[in-house]
Amino acid sequence: QSALTQPASVSGSPGQSITISCTGTSSDVGGYTYVYWYQQHPGKAPKLMIYDVSNRPSGVSNRFSGSKSGNTASLTISGLQAEDEADYYCSSYVSSYSYVFGTGTKVTVL
Amino acid sequence: EVQLVESGGGLVQPGRSLRLSCGASGFTFDDYALHWVRQAPGKGLEWVAGISWNSGNIAYADSVKGRFTISRDNTKKSLYLQMNSVRVEDTALYYCAKDQAAGSGYYWGFDYWGQGTLVTVSS
């Protein structure tokens, strides 16, 4: 159960688009459509932003989108806003009721 | 409103035991799988353990297997984590999290999280 690999940091200017990658293996990201993205602001609990690779829960802005190719999933934030500055974690289903998280990416809005 | 409230954290010596609890409200508790996720100070998220709606399926991270036990009491709408033989590296904020999808066979991520309870392992 090794953590999924994410870049430590990604930055962009307001209005720009950024993409965060999440690399796993065929046993997790590559083996299932069950990939998730969570947003965490400092001192707060994580918030589910994307599930099943590309689905957004009710209430999540359509500026957030997800995709997957092989063992790598990606989260794209379009029209970057100051409120998007946070830590982002990918996650994948591994087996029955078992999951793995990514190493986390700090998004900075310049 | 869905609420998950963790309790039971505190300072514990290495090798000792601690039991965390998570009280739930605002949803049909026995319809959903639940999980414990932890976050060491300044570090990332780590999934710890998960339990199905009827306790028929349970899973653990390798880092806690054999030391931690997850359980639930649907009559009390509560989730538990029994932590035995704790180690310094178990120091973290422990979150209780709820599956988004009811029942089994759907894995749609964790849609509600508590605010966490802090466990500090130190002599």
Q: What's the count of strands of chain A?
A: 9
| Quaternary | heterodimer
SSE string of chain A, helix = H, strand = E? EEEEEEEEE
Largest sheet of chain A: 6 strands, mixed
Using only CA atoms, what is the Rg of chain A? 13 Å
Shape, principal axes of CA atoms of chain B: globular
Mean pLDDT of chain A: 96
Strand content of chain B: over 45%
Low-confidence stretches of chain B: none
**Whole-number radius of gyration of chain B?**
14 Å
- Number of β-strand runs of chain B: 11
Distance between the termini of chain B: 40 Å
In which range does the helix fraction of chain B lie? under 10%
The poorly predicted ranges of chain A are none
Count every helix of chain A, treating DSSP H or I runs of 4 or more residues as helices.
Answer: 0
* First-residue to last-residue Cα separation of chain A: 34 Å
N-to-C series of helices and strands of chain B: EEEEEEEEEEE
Classify the secondary structure makeup of chain B into a structural class: mainly beta
Most extensive chain interface and residues per partner: A-B, 29 and 29 residues
Short note summarizing the structure:
The complex is a heterodimer of chains A (110) and B (123). By secondary structure, chain A is mainly beta.
